[in-house]
Amino acid sequence: MVFQLRSRGSSFDKLLNRHKMHMQSLEKIVSVLKRRNISYEVISRWDLNDCLEQFEWADAIVTAGGDGTFLSTASKITSRDKPIIGINTDPQRSEGHLCLPARCAAEFDKVLDEIQANKFNWLFRTRLRITMKGPPESHIPLQNGEILQAHPDDDTLLRPYNYMGAIDDVDDSYLDVRPPRYSERASLPSSACNSSTSPKPLPILALNEIFFGELLASVPTYYEMKVDGEELEKQKSSGICISTGTGSTAWSHNICTLHKETVRKILNIISTVDNKTEDKKTESKLLECVLENISSSYIFPPSDKNMLFSVRDPMQNNIYKCRNPRGFCNTITLRSRCWDAALSIDGSTSFTFNDGASATISIHPEDELKTVTLHT
C-alpha cells in the first residue's frame, strides 16, 4: 500500500498523521462519554448501512470526521426528533460547515456542558424528498464510486463511451445503435428493492443537494422539467443541481457564482457600448460589488422552505430552450429521457434515472434534520 500511494504522488506519512489526529480526537470523545457514564457505540462510516438498529436505539448521533462523514450519517436518520451533532476531527483539512466550531474536537467535554446548560439552539435543516416513479432499478440505492464493470471475457475494466444523440426533438432512431451500459454499481441494502413502478418516496433524503445527469460527462443530459405550476419544458444540459439552504454554500454556490473574469468582461462590454471609461480603482470596486451581489443572491438559510435549482450549461437553440437556468421553487418534477443517468444524493448515493423514470422533488416539515448550534 505504501508503494502504491507513493507511486501516485501521495504522501503516506501525511495520510498516516491525519489518521492519527482523527483517532486521537475520537478517543477523546469516547473518554468523555465514558467518564460521564453515557452509553454509546462506535460505528465506522463504512458500516453505516448495517447499523440501522443502533440508529433506532440512540437518543442522539455524534459524528467524528468532516462534512462527508456528517452527510453520510445524516442520510440514515429518518426521524425529525433524532438530533445529530458534528465534531470536526481535522479542521486543517476539512471546512466542517455542518459541524460545530473547530475548537469542539479538543473541548468535547465543554461542549456537553454547554448543551446540558441549554447554551445552544436547535436548527432544523430542510431536506429534500424524492418521490420516484419508474422501473424497479430506479428505486434501488447505489453506492457512488463503484461504476466499473469487469468484461466477462478478460476481466478488464470498461468505461462507457460516447454516442450520437437525437438530431431533433422527436428523433428516436439512435435508440437501437447506442452501446450497452457498462455502469453497474453495487446496490446498498434497502427495503426499497421491490418490483413496484408506482410513485414511491426514496429511502434517502438530501441534506445538501441532488444532482441529475448522465454518468458520462460529455453526453448531454436530456429530460423534461416542471417547476412548481409552470409548463413542462424539454431541456438538454450538463445536468441539474437542486439545493437546500444547507447546500447553498457548497457545490450549488460554485455553479451559480460567475467567475470574476466573466463579470469583468461584461462590465468592459457595457463600458464600451456606453462610451464610458472607469479608472482602475472604480472598476475594481464595481467588480467586487457585482460579484458579491451575485454570490449572496443564491445563498439562503438552512431552514428555508424553498429549494434552489441550477441548470448547468443549458443548450439553447431552435429545438431546446431554458426559460430560467436557476431559481427558487417549492417543487420540481423531472422526467428522464437519458440512457445512462443517475440522481445523486449528497455525493454519496445514487439512483438509476433513465428514460421512463420520473421524480418529484419536494419539501416536508417531517423530513427536517435536527441539529445543534452553540451560543458561542
Elements, N to C (H/E): HHHEHEHEEEEEEEEEEHHHEEEEEEE
Report how far apart the termini are.
Answer: 43 Å
Query: Which strand-content bin applies to the residues?
Result: 15-25%
Number of helices: 8
> What is the approximate shape?
globular
Strand line-up of the largest beta sheet: 5-17-16-9-12-13-14
Q: Mind telling me the C-alpha Rg?
A: 23 Å
Q: Quick one: how many beta strands?
A: 19
Helix-strand layout with pairing:
Elements: H1 2-7, H2 12-35, H3 52-57, E1 61-65, H4 67-74, E2 83-88, H5 108-116, E3 120-125, E4 128-133, E5 142-143, E6 149-150, E7 157-158, E8 200-201, E9 209-214, E10 221-227, E11 233-237, E12 240-243, H6 251-256, H7 260-273, H8 280-296, E13 307-311, E14 326-329, E15 332-336, E16 341-345, E17 349-352, E18 358-363, E19 369-374
Helix pairs in contact: 7-8
